[in-house]
Amino acid sequence: MQNKTIDIICHRRSIRSYQSTALTTEQIESLVQAAQSAPSSNFLQCATIIRITDSKNRAKLAHYAGDQEYILQAPEFWVFCADFNRHFQIAPTIPLEKAEQLLVGCIDTALMAQNTVIAAESLGLGTVYIGGLRNNIEKVTQLLALPKYVLPLFGLCIGYPDQNPDRKPRLPKELVFFENHYQPINHQLLAQYDTQMRQYYDHRLTNQKTNGWSDKIVEKIIKGQRDFILNYLHKQGWITK
């Protein structure tokens, strides 16, 4: 069963090339309204968006994220942060050091961001998440003057697409959707999916690859470890208990 909203969600792709057309004030207001309409655990509303309009700051963030040029090219670049500092200002004695606050903040922020993405798609805009900000998370924190209990999770490029990439095939439903209890991996389905991914990469016009999906899991997980993150979280007041 399909409708317009489901069709938008299912055809979303990451956009890494943008037209120069600026978003209107009304579009930006609509995106923020959609973001704020996301569910929030206990209605704590523990997420904050920082819109980056300073070109020098944008250039620094692009560099911190691994010199990703589309951060500079996109008309809009927003940084999404888990934020309990607002609550700390209201009630400085509340305990915020436990792991649950980190989970709640990350979940609230991710829901807000995905609402933004879906709303942007509905307006004919494209987006791409930028998790690379966490490569230099302390520098990002300093640049954005983030106080204690604020965590910059990722950036988001927003703008009119200047490319039309194919959508990456997703894992078979049977590998991610179970009933009543967890299921061991079906290796036959996984092998079929790896073949599908190899075909996708082979026919893709840019950044062609020869591997499937599971071939690169170990490499990607090791590459994305960011061993400094735990110490950073402790410095920002997160999960110290």
UniProtKB/TrEMBL annotation:
InterPro entries: Flavin_OxRdtase_Frp, Nitroreductase, Nitroreductase-like. One of its GO terms (molecular function) is oxidoreductase activity. Residues 11-160 form the Nitroreductase domain. It comes from the Bacteria. The keyword Cell cycle does not apply. Gene3D superfamilies: NADH Oxidase. Keywords: Flavoprotein, FMN, NADP, Oxidoreductase. Belongs to the flavin oxidoreductase frp family. This is Oxygen-insensitive NADPH nitroreductase. It comes from Gilliamella apicola.
